[in-house]
């Protein structure tokens, strides 16, 4: 994979996943949701599915949920929402936030259903379902904006400046 935006997104998501599991264990966000959004926006369907499975595996390694739940959830969400990437513009920074919210909106009910099926210790309340369907996509979109958009815009700006400098130097 030659796209550096995907690698930067994976590193940013992995840092947040480790920080979430080590420091903010009571605060639940889908750390790899913006990475899945980036992979859907910038790669083919097959590559996105593999990247989503890898992100789910990394999340499974850091969570106490049954192994494979996050891998299955992220892969299914990526398969369902990959077709909606055509309506998302790659060069607009806020589109990453909207697509992340859409991924979170699809992932949370699917994750809750899978956890209910495979982990009998999950309490399901009406208030928590409502909060997960409203609050979590908004929190994940804000997380994508503050944690991903700035570094990715900085990368693109730096890369353009580097290309301009190389053109002036060689020109």
Inertia-based shape: elongated
Q: What proportion strand?
A: under 5%
Helix content: over 70%
Mean pLDDT: 83
Low-pLDDT parts are none
**Distance linking N and C termini:** 30 Å
Q: In angstroms, what is the radius of gyration?
A: 17 Å
Biggest sheet overview: none
Task: Count every beta strand, where a strand is a DSSP E run of 2 or more residues.
Answer: 0
Q: Spell the H/E element sequence.
A: HHHHHH
Number of structural domains: 1
User: How would you classify the helix and strand content by structural class?
Assistant: mainly alpha
Can you walk through the features of this model?
The protein is built from 6 helices and no strands. It is mostly helical and 171 residues long. It has one domain. The protein is elongated. The two termini are 30 Å apart. The model has no long low-confidence stretch (mean pLDDT 83).
List the helices and strands and how they pair.
Elements: H1 4-22, H2 33-42, H3 45-62, H4 69-81, H5 93-118, H6 126-170
Helix pairs in contact: 1-2, 1-3, 1-6, 2-3, 2-5, 3-4, 4-5, 5-6
Keywords:
single chain, 171 residues, mainly alpha, elongated
Describe, in short, the structure shown.
The chain is mainly α.
């Amino acid at each position: 994979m030659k796209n550096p935006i995907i690698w930067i997104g994976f590193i940013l998501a992995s840092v947040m996943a480790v920080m979430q599991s080590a420091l903010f264990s009571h605060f639940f966000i889908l750390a790899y949701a913006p990475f899945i959004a980036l992979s859907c926006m910038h790669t083919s369907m097959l590559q996105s599915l593999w990247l989503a499975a890898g992100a789910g595996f990394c999340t499974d390694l850091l969570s106490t949920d049954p192994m494979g739940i996050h891998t299955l959830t992220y892969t299914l969400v990526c398969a369902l929402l990959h077709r909606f990437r055509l309506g998302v513009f790659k060069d607009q920074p806020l589109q990453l936030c909207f697509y992340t919210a859409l991924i979170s909106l699809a992932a949370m009910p699917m994750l809750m259903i899978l956890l209910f099926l495979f982990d009998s210790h999950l309490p399901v309340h009406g208030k928590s379902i409502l909060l997960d369907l409203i609050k979590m996509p908004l929190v994940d979109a804000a997380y994508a904006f503050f944690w991903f958009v700035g570094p990715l815009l900085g990368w693109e700006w730096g890369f353009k400046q580097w290309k301009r400098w190389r053109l002036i130097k060689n020109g």
